Amino acid sequence: MQRFLKPWLVACLALLTSLAHAQDSKLPVVASFSILGDIVHNVGGDRVEVTTLVGPDRDSRTYQPTPADADKLDHARLLLVNGLGLENWLPHLKAISHYRGPVAVVTEGIKPRMIREHGKLVPDPNVFQDPVLVKTVALRIRDALIAADPAGRAYYTERALNYTLALDDLVTWAHKQLAPIPPPRRVIFTAHDDFGYLGERFDIRFITPPSPTRNRELSAWEIRRLARKLRYLGTQAIFAENTASPQVVERVARDAHLKVSGKLYADALSQTQEAVTYLQLFQHNIRVAVSAMKNNR
Predict the structure, then answer these.
(1) What confidence tier does 257 reach under pLDDT thresholds 50, 70, 90?
(2) N or C: which terminus of the chain carries fewer CB neighbours within 10 A?
């Protein structure tokens, strides 16, 4: 056996050691759901290791924490959540974990739109449907990362700036895509009131059932009423959502003698290549919405 290692082997071992050290030195961060995890990754870059609790194509509202999720949180130094009622399961998760670190609410400072659920007005948590509001989210993430990792201040600041500029470009692009469609024809039917921020920003009217349908079936009378409304308005743009059963949308479309236009991404990224980042998600939603609304009368 040779007494000394060859120079190239020494270099390889040094590189592996350096990479392992870099991995260990990354800031371990947990994000509550997939969209937030992607934005954290964009702002945090190589200085963070992001773990997401509610993964792609999963509904954050129906998620139930598991012991494995608690273990993920136990190894984190920062927890980032949306807030505004999206993570009602957070107290349970904290109770079954040993995490006592900082919790950053990324929607802090945003004035939410209010929606009615079960007879009460509550904040709409789906702020990520508006890229302008996501700029504020990105800055909140920046500040939380700097607080947890002060040495990365300049790095996080630059990446957050670059991401907000990309969001500005996204808004400009969306306005151009929607420009050929007159506002009266910008009408879309979905099963849930998840796209209100998108509608307010880009003057799109979203028609939804009059009460939440996540936990109940619509009656035959409600289905017929919605179908008549769509026919009266001349609405051809009818969309299912990636985190919800398409049954309600399919029943309304069938009663109105229409076809479902496709799928919109509500509060989760996709497992396929269609919307694996927030920017892709938003571009997909705008593209399919514009294509369908061109058929509205």
Answers:
(1) very high
(2) N
Across 3-12, 96-105, 193-202, 213-222, least confident range: 3-12
**CATH number listed for the domain at residues 16-173:** 3.40.50.1980
Is residue 132 packed enough to be buried (19+ CB in 10 Å), middle (13-18) or exposed (0-12)? Answer: middle
Which of 3.40.50.1980, 3.30.565.10, 3.90.1170.50, 3.40.50.1220 is the CATH number of 180-293? 3.40.50.1980
Residue 14: Cβ within 10 Å count: 10
Whether the model pTM is above 0.70: yes
24 pLDDT tier (thresholds 50, 70, 90)? low
Q: Cα dist. 232→207, 228, 229 in Å?
A: 13, 6, 5
**Where do you find CATH 3.40.50.1980 in the chain?**
16-173, 180-293
Higher pLDDT, 3 or 164: 164
Model confidence pLDDT, tens digit, residues 283-293:
999 999 999 99
